[in-house]
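Q: Predict the bound structure with glutamine.
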Amino acid sequence: MHSPIPDYLLEVLDACGTDGGAVADYIPELAAADPDRFGICLATVDGTVYSAGNAETTFTIQSMSKPFAYGVALADQGHEAMAEKIDVEPSGEAFNEISLEPGTGRPKNAMINAGAILTHSLVAGDDGIQRTERLREMFSRCAGRELRIDESAFTSEFDTAHRNLGLAHMMKAVGILDCDPVEAVRGYSRQCSIEVTCRDLAMMAATLANAGVQPTTGEQILSRRSVRQMLSVMMTCGMYDAAGDWMTDVGIPAKSGVSGGVIGALPGQVGIAVFSPRLDSHGSSVRGVETFERLSTDMGMHMMEVAHEGRSALRDAFTTDGPDPVTVYQVQGDLRFTGAETVVRAISEAEHTTGRVVLDLTRAYRLNDVGQRMLLEVARRLGLDGIEVAMVDPDHALHGPHVEASGLEMFDHLDAAIAARADR
Ligand code: GLN
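A: Predicted complex:
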């Protein structure tokens, strides 16, 4: 059968093809872009890619490099050191606004140019070339292929970077930028000139949606903590002075660039990239914004539209037949607080007359730290009440030292966990 998803994407291309806006013309490489180009690409967290239109056209990454460079700087400097240099507040201003916090000189966030230039300077490396090489290499691993730099776009960008040089000199003057301001802007301009396609960007976004793990290679490229920070800043600051509109209408952490690309990463689900060069007054792709609005509405992707994880966490609860009955709780899915609460409540409220309880995690996909602690605590309390507890956990949904310390009986199969009782 032919999947309906590519057909749906073609429909979106048709429906969102407005001609409004204008191609960025401050450098010839951007001015030369074909304004009618239009591509969409979705990459799921399991690595499946769907695309429509010009998904393989190359263009420069521009400001879509900013969240990824922020992730690398967070890894190189640590979160605390980064917080001292760059704030995390939406600026409500245009991307190239000259605004630094009075007193500290910190840029408002890492998505506006001031913060992005400072971020670039905090990536490990002796000069702009080394820092960009580190970024190019990391972006390539996220994209799943070797990316190159558009040298002519870089030269044009740097030759006309007067405003960015102004920002960097100002940051040097207030003492927040340590390196040579010209070198910082040279490197930042190179970083913006890394060449990508919609498909590359969708894979990069999917790496964020997948908590830092590249969906096809399985490599953990960014830490979970860094990804959380990157997505938070994308959500609040990624769309500059349109961040509030974006949050209410689309509700997906995102970043746009003047080349006409927009990326979005929906945590746990999908990375999205759209490319079409004509820009609105905020410097974001007109069709890109329209497409994201449409995808979010059609596919229920707004982050504030929540799934009811709790209701489905307890798949089944039953008592086995026979002379030595056992009570079994079957847990399923991705368990966080609300899911674990449903399971904990069912167990706490039940009268356990069987003397043995089996918690079957065969279908539990992933338990976060809270989910694990809650299940272990329930097991401990059942034990205090004199009830035997066994866990069925073939895929090690429970892991770490606290699991071993619990001394729980562990099994790979439910049948074995039930039979263990009858054996005695
Ligand atoms: N290279 C561009 C600049 O710094 C990037 C801006 C953007 O994409 N919004 O001006």
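A: The domain at 309-422 is CATH 3.30.750.24 (Transcription Regulator spoIIAA).
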